[in-house]
Design goal:
This protein is 40% helix and 15% strand. Strands 1-13-12-11-10-9-7-2 form an eight-stranded parallel sheet.
Amino acid sequence: MKRSEDRILTTHAGSLPRPKYLQPLLDAKRRGEPYDPAELDQKVKQAVKEVVDQQVAYGIDVVGDGEESKPSFNLYLDERISGFEMKLPPPGQVPTMSMDGRDRTDFREFYSEESGFGLRLVSSAYAVQEQQICTGPLSYIGQDIVAADVATFQAALEGVDYAEGFIPTLAPGTIDHRLFNEYYKSEEEFVYAIAEMMRPEYEAIANAGFIVQIDDPGLPDTWDMLISRPSLEEYRKYADLRVEALNHALSNVPPSLVRYHICWGSWHGPHTYDIPLEDIVDIMLKVNADAYSIEAGNVRHDHEWRVWETTKLPDGKILVPGVVSHATNVVEHPRLVADRLVKYASLVGRENVIAGTDCGLGGRVHQQIAWAKFKALKEGADLATSELWG
């Protein structure tokens, strides 16, 4: 994995805006409505090529495919895994997890109204509704889909000047958000089954020579989703198990091809119950990855650079702090971006810092805002480079 050896490199967290000609087809597929698969395939290829070219034009060094082919989290699971079915839970069963955590309880009026960029969040604690429930052995059936994602990205990169490419994929602990278990005998067996199921996707991306970005918002944000309200010690054990399972799934992928991304959920809300980074940073660093991508730019986590005053970034590792945020339509000033990067460089070493985004910008801010943030990201990285290298 390339390092910032003579300048601050730039990247982002994955999701990028979908063009207007693609979004209706993705929406139709997500809703189960009729659409033309050949047309969708053609437009995905067009969109990936466009976002690759735009990333390079805006000065992004480590580029992604923008997740242009992925309509939603649930459809991602539907298409790529087997062994579950949509059904109602048994009568009287309380789910282990709910989107309606303490943040949504304290700010129920806010969450019942429009919030952020076209995002409506409505309280639904303990709602009786169909869930994705594991009813048999889990297996991966997405080989053709990930192969298509890889081939589309490879084609889009032909003739393009870039440092490295990455493709995002989901961590077992985040898949665990929505997939409930009625088949496996224990929580550990279930989590490891998810990890083993995802192994082929991780290896397919790495075998193509791309960085495998493991998206794991579940590591931080499950803290406020578990209905049992665990103690910190109990939650750390919960998170540890999922990181151990992830490392099991990555056993054939060299850490030099793994980037681990965490965030506290990308919705535009108060986030008053986000677990502090200092409470989970040691667990994050257990992931067998060369780089760690974290939220660092939004107002709930901007102060957490202080974590690195007392936590040593392991030798040979890279930190990718989000220095522009998905959580606001305000475009960060390049000077602010540079200040954030210089601060992190002073703590972990300039060669160990790559400028990133808090989370994916696609669907969280308007596309004009997203690309303006990339412009600020590059300009801020250049300012930081001037200060750090002279």
